[in-house]
Design brief:
alpha/beta
Chain lengths: 340, 340
């Protein structure tokens, strides 16, 4: 009753103003509803977007023959080049170089010793010449020899200061807006979203939840061996300078089985390193979505040579075209690339 | 209107009968509500039950200084002896022996070859004499050399026919009713419940969801190496006769970090093999629950000798008593042991 009286008073006092305000609010509300009705608003209309939506609608529609129960809705995503950019080199490379530079004062001998000398002098040719053995030595020096807690702090600290050389922004800003929307769209439809990446699992976990909404327990990646130890009466896990698991190529379906124990019904990648993950996903029964991001946008992001040694996308693209997997043409399919 | 008339007719026709029925229904309803109000109805009242409930209430109460946000609510459970029985030997042992017997017709040489001969003749003394090397040979023969899909089917088929020697029931009936209630109680309060067991991960995953409500992706265990292969154009994961990971003792905190990537706030075990998992859990900041099941009930289950070589519970019990961890006295604390 009191409320009714107040409304009348308000209405009498500024009747026209009130009406205009109400109409304005209604229009804004309708616009907002229209915008939020498209969960993939950064994707241009077309075959790719349609294929994604059709798949999600079918597997979630209880009366569809393609219905999949929620516990089976597992979607796995490569990280570098699929969820965030990976040029000019995968971002964990920048982290590694910065760690060598940060540790250099404690290792004066590195000034004269390869492959450390190459990094300190930004000599990429000498670094490449150090080959896989050199790379492994650098990775072990920068990624092992500390506790898991110490490494987590190193990664978090680095992310707050490091900037991408081209975009001059924190690396975690270089995530793909259309893929953020896709992750949220899948989760909103009962999917569990997993990262399955060749990158280091402990390099991704400290920020995956904040940036992608993917919790640490849903990140699968490469790892070093860990050792449980007592240090001053407190238990710690030491990171040992020894590879435990390489989650790349044929390692991806292995990682999926080890860490998830179910076959995904949707898998997302962008290179030959993702081929076996997509093959493994495709080989299951029932509806499937296999999607590959093709980097075709030199202006807003990068256009890759499919034969490039770093991010080879040759066999996977062939197989995608042959088997009718979904290929994202970044230039054509994405309205926006980055959130900024 | 029609409904109202019907009620009146009913009321007039059998007024007294109707009233008695209604009172009966209300009483039944109240009783049911009282029963369902206790999520741990198979636990006797006492310190142990109080400690569990107090912990859960504190970490879920937003106005408590001990509040823990839902994503941090990770609880890890040992399996053998903590969620299901493990006597006279851990049940995966029975599976292994049955597999040797099932495979024997294809291996006539086993009749004369240890350690297979020992199993075929039920000669436990000769089996023990084969030591760790013998045990490993048996495990690899029975747990490797097939695809992951084939192994899953073998485990599932075995479970439908195998019976426990003492209780003459399927092994999955020998789960602890109080622990099933505890799992549901924790999940109902926003916890993610994980198995962290020394047993084989692929031996547990085929039934963990149905029996415990724990999905395959929340099972951490020991494993053999896997290899991705193409077989008749179809991708398979082969189980190799090589240990990948032993999830026991100091391996448990390692497994937790590898597979979950977060420290639990509650951990449950029953032997020295769980000690490091409980130490790792206890060493985190904020409220913690460390619980050990002490097998004290020779009548309904088993009473163990803490010094027994198979399920040693010596250091862990010492540390539990010294640090005030929760110890379940099975005989005293459990109203019921098994669901049957």
């Amino acid at each position: 009753m009191i409320m009714k009286k107040n409304w009348r008073t308000l209405s009498r006092r500024g009747n026209r103003c009130f009406q205009i305000c109400m109409i304005f609010l209604i229009v804004v509300g309708m616009l907002a509803a229209t915008v939020s009705a498209d969960p993939l608003s950064s994707w241009n209309e077309g075959q790719t977007k349609q294929a994604i939506i059709k798949f999600v609608q079918e597997v979630t529609n209880k009366s569809s023959p393609k219905y999949v129960s929620p516990e089976q809705r597992i979607a796995t995503f490569d990280n570098d080049g699929t969820l965030w950019a990976e040029q000019p080199i995968p971002f964990q490379g920048f982290f590694t170089f910065d760690r060598v530079k940060a540790l250099a004062p404690q290792h004066p001998e590195w000034k004269e010793r390869q492959p450390f000398k190459a990094i300190l002098e930004n000599d990429m040719k000498a670094l490449a010449a150090a080959g896989e053995k050199g790379a492994m030595e650098i990775i072990m020096t920068t990624h092992a020899g500390m506790t898991t807690g110490e490494f987590e702090k190193i990664v978090k600290d680095w992310l707050t200061t490091a900037k991408h050389p081209r975009f001059k922004k924190p690396f975690t800003d270089l995530v793909y807006q259309p893929m953020l929307e896709l992750l949220a769209y899948f989760r909103g439809n009962g999917f569990k979203t997993y990262i399955v990446s060749g990158g280091g699992v402990e390099f991704m976990r400290p920020w995956s939840e904040k940036v992608y909404g993917i919790p640490p327990e849903q990140v699968v990646g490469s790892s070093v061996k860990l050792k449980f130890e007592m240090r001053d009466g407190k238990p710690v896990l030491m990171r040992l300078p020894e590879i435990d698991f390489i989650d790349d190529g044929p390692g991806k379906p292995v990682g999926i089985q080890k860490f998830i124990g179910r076959r995904p019904i949707a898998a997302f990648g962008n290179s030959d390193g993702d081929l076996q993950m997509l093959q493994w996903t495709a080989a299951g029964e029932g509806p499937r979505l296999m999607l590959l991001v093709h980097h075709t946008d030199a202006e807003r992001e990068w256009a890759y040579d499919p034969q490039s040694s770093m991010q080879r996308f040759d066999k996977a693209l062939d197989e995608a075209l042959r088997r009718g997997w979904t290929v994202v043409d970044m230039k054509k399919d994405w309205k926006r690339v980055f959130p900024f």
